[in-house]
């Protein structure tokens, strides 16, 4: 019989993996991996502000991620700097501001390791509510946005000519990514938060014939990574968050070993 904390950890991890799969597919297609890292780094600023203002930490992280996503969207529209340059500035700036803000909080002890690498074994029932409610809202938004977002991803100029509100679609997608990053940080931490977005989707890309199939397979691959990582953590007493990422990386490497012809036949 598993302990309650293991059951909650598995439930939370599987919930995050199911949500991350479809989003991760678009992150891979649109080459937004660095954007996920930037949001994850900004989460530490959310932690600092949440402690300073005595707010719920998940809520403060969500607000900071949304503000950063809006700043990036506006910066991309003005086109004065390249996207990767903006991401680099926002990423390191937000991370540094977060660390500085925490340094000024005397008498408050913060477990930075938990925020950096996650503490999935400490997930509470309230955290599960945040994961499934927030993640469910984000997933519902993605399903509503699916067709226009896919059109913009394939060819932005053509989508604009066909009447797709490109700017609205792009901003909504960035806002949804910010939402799930805030939710996922509790599971694998800010430095590893993009792993469940990128690695499962990259793993199954070779075996997917349609965008919908890739989204489903990415969710399943993420669930396998969570299950395998938690088992390894329980079996060998290793950190749970990094163990999940290691399991995902192993799946990716195994996928690369499958001959390209077999991967093509499965599409």
Question: What keywords describe this structure?
Answer:
267 residues; single chain; mainly alpha; ABC transporter involved in vitamin B12 uptake, BtuC; globular; 81% helix
Outline the structure in words:
This protein is mainly α and 267 residues long. It has one domain: ABC transporter involved in vitamin B12 uptake, BtuC, CATH 1.10.3470. It has twelve helices and no strands. It has helices at residues 4-29, 33-53, 57-78, 83-103, 112-117, 125-154, 156-161, 166-188, 195-204, 211-236, 240-257, 260-265. Helix 2 (33-53) crosses helix 3 (57-78) and helix 2 (33-53) runs parallel beside helix 4 (83-103). The model has no long low-confidence stretch (mean pLDDT 86).
- Termini gap: 40 Å
Share of helix among residues? over 70%
What is the 3D shape? globular
Number of strands: 0
Rounded Rg: 18 Å
Strand content: under 5%
Structural domain tally: 1
Would you tell me the structural class of the helices and strands?
mainly alpha
Helix count equals: 12
CATH architecture type: Orthogonal Bundle
- CATH level-1 class: Mainly Alpha
Element order: H for helix, E for strand:
HHHHHHHHHHHH
């Amino acid at each position: 019989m598993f302990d309650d904390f293991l059951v909650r950890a598995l439930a939370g991890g599987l919930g995050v993996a199911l949500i991350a799969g479809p989003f991760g597919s678009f992150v891979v297609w649109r080459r937004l991996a660095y954007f996920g890292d930037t949001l994850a780094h900004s989460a530490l600023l959310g932690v600092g502000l949440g402690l300073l203002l005595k707010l719920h930490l998940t809520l403060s992280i969500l607000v900071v991620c949304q503000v950063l996503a809006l700043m990036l969207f506006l910066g991309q529209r003005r086109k004065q700097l390249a996207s990767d340059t903006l991401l680099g500035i926002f990423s390191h700036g937000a991370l540094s501001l977060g660390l500085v803000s925490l340094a000024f909080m005397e008498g408050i002890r913060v477990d930075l390791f938990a925020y950096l690498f996650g503490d999935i074994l400490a997930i509470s029932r309230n955290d599960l509510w945040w994961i499934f409610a927030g993640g469910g809202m984000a997933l519902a938004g993605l399903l509503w946005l699916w067709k226009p977002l896919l059109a913009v991803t394939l060819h932005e100029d053509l989508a604009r000519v066909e009447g797709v509100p490109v700017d609205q679609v792009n901003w909504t997608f960035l806002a949804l990514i910010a939402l799930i990053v805030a939710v996922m940080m509790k599971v694998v931490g800010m430095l590893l938060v993009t792993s469940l977005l990128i690695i499962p989707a990259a793993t199954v890309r070779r075996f997917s014939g349609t965008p919908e199939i890739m989204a489903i397979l990415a969710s399943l691959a993420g669930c396998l990574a969570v299950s395998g990582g938690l088992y390894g953590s329980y079996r060998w007493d290793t950190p749970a968050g990094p163990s999940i990422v290691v399991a995902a990386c192993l799946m990716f490497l195994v996928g690369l070993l499958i001959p390209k012809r077999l991967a093509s036949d499965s599409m």
